[in-house]
Every structure is written in structure tokens, then in C-alpha cells.
């Protein structure tokens, strides 16, 4: 198995017939054979002693999993833990089905696609994360051309809210001031993926807006590590231009940072499903970033629901719909999302 893919598997268990659905996979009744004991001992040496590690060992032993090295064990364990979190939260919702651990619990979305296990039927026909109580108010980037920072923060806030059941207001200004070493250029240009890399590797977290307030311009980095409030463990870049993959993630995991080529007609948008023959979809055309918070159909036209950073007075309460299925204006050209701690 490759250790390069960092896609989370939180969606995968929805897709599978869950013969063990009532159980999250600890499988405490598994007899302690010599083979299982050896797996447990080897995993404990790499990962430390915990109930999750023992569950992971039982899972690996039950399904005959083998990993190439310690790094892959750590990666697969991280994916496995995300799966357990997803199972717990999903089964608490009182849905008409249950989910549980099976042989796919350590696989990422991309790997599961290769097995044929990822089915379109698992993805909702429509979704709007605004209606699920995980998003705060629409923000306004003002005169600072840092849509990349607002897009990145929006994705982190949504992921944190969904995981921890608490909406938080995080600091775009920290990204604007502090992520220059990662290739972002303050109010001139940047990318959400670079912001995620900074948060993962450099800052070790992002501050609350109240601790690092927005100034609307580039300033000196004044990060107080002790006040970093939210950490991300990794981030996922969606295959460029792949709207089906983007749909699966938005539908099953949550809001995603997306790219866009803004042309004049979008500035005056008021309602409806936007499309344009003037915008481009190549990497060189990208000049703006926003947050995909849903999708659906309107008048027979499939659309993405996009949360912008131009304030709640623009568009439809700060949002716009753009035609889906054509990578319209590069909506899926450069998309990514974070995994929060």
C-alpha cells in the first residue's frame, strides 16, 4: 500500500454492507492467539499502548493486513481512527442504517475507488452544510486580496465544527501574516493548500479571531503558539478537475476549499445557477478561492453551492450557485480540505 495518499476514509464505511454494523470494530471477543498477540506487540511498539491500537491490531489480524514499514502502520492507524470517529458519530444520528468496521477501514477514498467499493449511491443527491449547523457567518475579505486565506479558514472551521460539535471563529490574519515562507503572498495571492501546510508543519495550529484579529492588510507575524486553538493533522488535495471526487467529499465529509476564475459577470451575481463562456478552468486562470458548501439541482441544472468571502450582502446571503459537471470557471481545478485534530 502507498504511504503517499493522505485521503481520509470517513466516507467509506457508508458504502459497504455493514455486517458488523452495531460494533465499531474493537472485536473484544476475538480469541488471543499467538498470531494476534504478535501483531498487538508489534503495533504497540510503534504506536504505544491504547484501546484503539489494540482494536487496530485485531482489525489487521482479522483481515490479514500487512504493512511495509512503521510509517505505513502509523498512516493506516490514523485512517483507521478517523473511520472509528465517523462510525460513532454516524450511528448516533438514528439513521435508517448502521455503519461499522470492515475490510476497508484502513483505506483512503482513492484506494477504495480502485477496489470498486466506492459507489455513487452512497453520496447524497443534494447537500447544504449551511443547514446542518456547522458553519458560522459569511465573512468579508474587504480590500485584501486574500480569498485563499478565507477559503482555508472556512474549511478548517467547518471540519472542526463537524468533529467537535462547536462553531469557532478562526484567524485569517494569522495566515496572511505568517504563511509567507510557505509560498503565500499576503494580500496579493496564495493558495489554501499552502495555508494548510503552514498550519500542519509550521504554526502547529491556528488562533481564534479574537486573539489574532483581522487588519485587512499584510503585517508582521505575531503568532502566540500558546493561543493556537485548532490544529490540523494533514490535508487532502482533490484530483484537479475531478468533480465526481469533489462531490463525494462535499457530500460525505464536508465543505471544501475550491478555486475559481472570477470574471466581471460574477461581481453582479444575484441569484440562479451561474455559468460563463468567458471564464477559464486551467490552473493559470485561477484568481480566487472560496468554499464549496453543497450541491444540488435547480431547474434541471446541476450546481455547486459556493460560500464566497465578499460579505453576506453579496449574492444570496454571501453564496452563489455555479453549474456543476463542466468544471465551470475552474471550480474543481484546485480543491483541498483539511483533517483537524
UniProtKB/TrEMBL annotation:
Per the UniProt entry, the Enzyme Commission number(s) are 3.4.22.16
Cleaved signal peptide residues: 1-21
What does the UniProt record say this protein does?
Answer: May play a role in proteolysis leading to mobilization of nitrogen during senescence and starvation.
* Bilayer-spanning residue ranges: none
What GO terms in the biological process aspect are recorded for it?
A: phenylpropanoid biosynthetic process; proteolysis
Please state the gene responsible for encoding this protein. LOC108846542
Peptidase C1A papain C-terminal domain location? 123-339
Cite a single GO MF annotation.
Answer: feruloyl-CoA hydratase/lyase activity
Q: Which reaction does it catalyse?
A: Hydrolysis of proteins, acting as an aminopeptidase (notably, cleaving Arg-|-Xaa bonds) as well as an endopeptidase
User: Any keyword Signal?
Assistant: yes
Species assigned in the record: Raphanus sativus (Radish)
Q: Which SUPFAM superfamilies match?
A: Cysteine proteinases
Q: What is this protein called?
A: cathepsin H
> What family name appears in the similarity comment?
Belongs to the peptidase C1 family.
Q: Which residues form the Cathepsin propeptide inhibitor domain?
A: 56-112
Entry keywords, A to Z: Disulfide bond, Hydrolase, Protease, Signal, Thiol protease
* Alphabetical list of Pfam families matching this protein: Inhibitor_I29, Peptidase_C1
Amino acid at each position: 500500500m502507498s504511504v503517499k495518499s493522505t485521503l481520509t476514509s470517513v466516507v467509506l464505511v457508508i458504502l459497504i454492507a455493514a455486517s458488523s454494523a452495531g460494533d465499531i470494530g474493537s472485536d473484544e471477543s476475538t480469541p488471543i492467539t499467538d498470531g494476534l498477540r504478535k501483531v498487538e506487540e508489534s503495533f504497540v511498539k510503534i504506536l504505544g499502548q491504547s484501546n484503539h491500537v489494540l482494536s487496530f491490531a485485531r482489525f489487521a489480524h482479522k483481515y490479514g493486513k500487512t504493512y511495509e514499514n512503521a510509517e505505513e502502520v502509523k498512516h493506516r492507524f490514523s485512517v483507521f481512527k478517523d473511520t472509528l470517529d465517523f462510525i460513532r458519530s454516524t450511528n448516533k444520528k438514528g439513521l435508517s442504517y448502521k455503519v461499522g468496521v470492515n475490510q476497508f477501514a484502513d483505506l483512503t477514498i482513492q484506494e477504495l475507488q480502485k477496489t470498486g467499493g466506492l459507489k455513487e449511491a452512497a453520496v447524497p443527491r443534494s447537500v447544504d452544510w449551511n443547514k446542518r449547523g456547522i458553519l458560522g457567518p459569511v465573512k468579508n475579505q474587504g480590500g485584501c486580496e486574500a480569498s485563499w486565506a478565507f477559503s482555508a479558514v472556512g474549511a478548517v472551521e467547518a471540519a472542526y465544527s463537524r468533529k467537535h460539535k462547536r462553531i469557532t471563529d478562526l484567524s485569517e490574519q494569522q495566515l496572511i501574516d505568517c504563511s509567507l515562507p510557505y509560498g503565500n503572498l499576503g494580500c496579493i495571492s496564495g493558495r489554501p493548500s499552502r495555508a494548510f501546510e503552514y498550519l500542519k508543519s509550521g504554526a502547529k495550529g491556528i488562533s481564534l479571531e479574537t486573539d489574532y484579529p483581522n487588519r485587512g492588510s499584510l503585517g508582521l507575524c505575531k503568532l502566540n503558539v500558546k493561543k493556537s486553538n485548532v490544529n490540523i493533522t494533514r490535508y487532502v488535495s482533490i484530483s484537479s478537475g475531478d468533480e465526481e471526487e469533489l462531490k463525494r467529499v462535499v457530500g460525505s465529509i464536508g465543505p471544501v476549499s475550491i478555486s475559481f476564475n472570477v470574471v466581471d459577470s460574477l461581481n453582479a451575481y444575484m441569484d440562479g445557477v451561474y455559468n460563463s463562456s468567458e471564464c477559464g478552468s486551467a490552473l493559470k486562470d485561477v484568481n480566487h478561492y472560496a468554499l464549496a458548501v453543497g450541491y444540488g439541482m435547480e431547474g434541471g441544472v446541476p450546481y455547486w453551492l459556493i460560500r464566497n468571502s465578499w460579505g453576506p450582502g453579496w449574492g444570496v446571503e454571501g453564496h452563489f450557485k455555479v453549474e456543476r459537471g463542466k468544471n465551470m470557471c475552474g471550480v474543481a481545478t484546485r480543491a483541498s480540505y483539511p483533517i483537524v485534530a
